[in-house]
């Protein structure tokens, strides 16, 4: 199992701030594909992904127990 965290607009699209999913092995790219298939309204054009609170590339491995965060660009003023 891995723990997914959604921020800003992604949280609103998913209808939740986080969820756990069954996961055995794969990469960040695999997780992004899963999320894109599950939440078709997600816009991943500028989303950054963090694994265990570290920004990572799509080739980074994701293992059971990891925390994966999808972080879209945000602005403030």
Total number of helices: 2
Strand count, sense and barrel status of the largest sheet are: 5 strands, mixed
Number of individual domains: 1
CATH architecture verdict: Roll
Portion of residues within helices:
10-25%
Gyration radius, in Å: 12 Å
What is the assigned CATH homologous superfamily?
A: Beta-grasp domain
Walk across the major sheet and give the strand order: 2-1-7-4-5
| Uncertain parts | none
Number of strands: 7
**Mean pLDDT across every amino acid position:** 93
Give the SSE order as H and E letters: EHEEHEEEE
In whole angstroms, the N-to-C terminal distance is 38 Å
Shape verdict: globular
InterPro entries: Beta-grasp_dom_sf, MOCS2A, Mopterin_synth/thiamin_S_b, ThiS/MoaD-like
Protein name: Molybdopterin synthase sulfur carrier subunit
Pfam families: ThiS
GO cellular component, one term: molybdopterin adenylyltransferase complex
């Amino acid at each position: 199992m891995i723990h997914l965290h959604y921020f800003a607009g992604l949280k609103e699209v998913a209808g939740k701030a986080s969820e756990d999913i069954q996961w055995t092995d794969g990469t960040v790219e695999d997780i992004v594909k899963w999320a894109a298939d599950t939440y078709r309204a997600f816009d991943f054009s500028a989303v950054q992904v963090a694994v265990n609170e570290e920004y990572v590339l799509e080739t980074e491995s994701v293992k059971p127990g990891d925390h994966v965060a999808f972080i879209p660009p945000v602005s403030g003023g």
